[in-house]
Design goal:
Blueprint (H helix, E strand, L loop, with lengths): L9 H21 L5 H8 L3 H7 L3 H23 L5 H17 L4 H8 L6 H22 L9 H15 L7 H13 L3
Helix pairs in contact: 1-2, 1-4, 4-5, 4-7, 5-7, 5-8, 5-9, 6-8, 7-8, 8-9
């Protein structure tokens, strides 16, 4: 939603909020490729109304995810004060990975978006990435993380693990995979 626009009328605001709520449900149930027509129908509006608010699928996904990304960026800032930098990075990755795994297909989309400056998700992803890069650098400076690891590699691994955790059974699937990967990421 563009903040330079006039405030929405009450009915337009209700439609917008219903569309977001239905999109969250649809993306959780059917993944990020859920039917936009079905989202509009369940929100009680026409597809044209959906496209007036969200001109592309990615614009809708970005709006649904923005609050979570902002929260994850704030968590990264808070974790910078942790006395254990590598554990702080792992804690952030666990939270972000759980968010990514919430919507089927999101991990693959996120990897693509990290390099696509034209995507509506690009700015949100990079704002969050800037915050987590400080966690990565802090863990490297403390000698706890391999010096040759980049934040881009960490994020791609995270999205791969989020995808993989969708295909495993049991509790704490993502945490288990992160433990395995972190064994190889520790500085020796």
């Amino acid at each position: 939603m563009d903040t330079d626009k006039k405030p929405m009328r009450a009915d337009a605001r209700r439609n917008y909020e219903r569309l977001l709520e239905e999109a969250k449900h649809a993306f959780a149930a059917h993944g990020v490729e859920a039917s936009l027509e079905e989202i509009a129908r369940r929100a009680g509006v026409g597809i044209g109304t959906l496209y007036r608010h969200f001109p592309t699928r990615e614009a809708l996904i970005e709006t649904v995810l923005r609050e979570g990304f902002d929260t994850q960026a704030a968590v990264a800032r808070e974790l910078l004060d942790s006395p254990e930098p590598l554990n702080a990075l792992k804690a952030w990755l666990t939270g972000m990975g759980e968010q990514s795994a919430r919507y089927h297909g999101l991990p693959e989309l996120m990897v693509d978006v990290l390099n696509d400056e034209t995507s509506p998700l690009y700015a949100s992803c990079h704002a969050m990435r800037d915050q987590v890069s400080q966690l990565v650098e802090r863990a490297k400076a403390a000698g706890e993380l391999r010096a040759d690891v980049t934040v881009s590699e960490i994020l791609v691994v995270l999205h791969a693990l989020s995808w993989a955790s969708e295909h495993l059974s049991g509790d704490n699937r993502l945490e288990r995979l992160l433990d395995l990967v972190f064994a190889g990421l520790r500085a020796s």
